[in-house]
Design a protein that fits this description.
flat; four-stranded mixed β-sheet; 28% helix; alpha/beta
């Protein structure tokens, strides 16, 4: 028998990879001897970049950007090699995420996705020729 685990994150507690690893450990402890394939997934928000890097490999990068209310933060994104060129994998929530500004009153009139653009520029300056963006979780 063969099992494919395609789990999303358990928001606030486990990443998709951590959740998948826990299920694998449970199956093995329970005596399952078959093949287990793990393919973390994401809906485009938090965890999107990790899911892509887990599936395809790659490296993490950090970019100095501004959050949705203009405060300086560091945003992580991934860089992968594909078809002979570099591709950046970003999630909007890493720079312009709702969770990042939860300490402030929500105000759509002042919120901005500037940080996502800054992250894109950083990726291009590091050689990205294509950019994939997950847009969930934005402020």
């Amino acid at each position: 028998m063969r099992i494919l685990l395609a789990l999303d994150k358990f928001k606030g507690s486990l990443t998709a990879k951590e959740a998948s690893d826990a299920v694998v450990r449970g199956l093995r402890r329970g005596g399952f001897q078959g093949d287990i394939e793990v393919c973390p997934i994401a809906d485009g928000g938090e965890g999107f970049t990790e899911a892509v890097l887990t599936a395809l490999g790659g490296e993490w990068n950090e970019a100095p950007v501004h959050d949705a209310q203009g405060r300086p933060v560091l945003a992580r994104y991934g860089m992968i090699q594909h078809a002979g060129h570099k591709e950046a994998v970003l999630e909007m929530s890493a720079a312009s995420g709702l969770a990042m500004v939860s300490d402030l009153p929500l105000n759509p009139h002042t919120a901005s996705t500037r940080g996502t653009g800054e992250m894109m520029l950083h990726a291009m300056s590091n050689g990205a020729q294509r950019i994939l963006i997950g847009i969930g979780g934005s402020a």
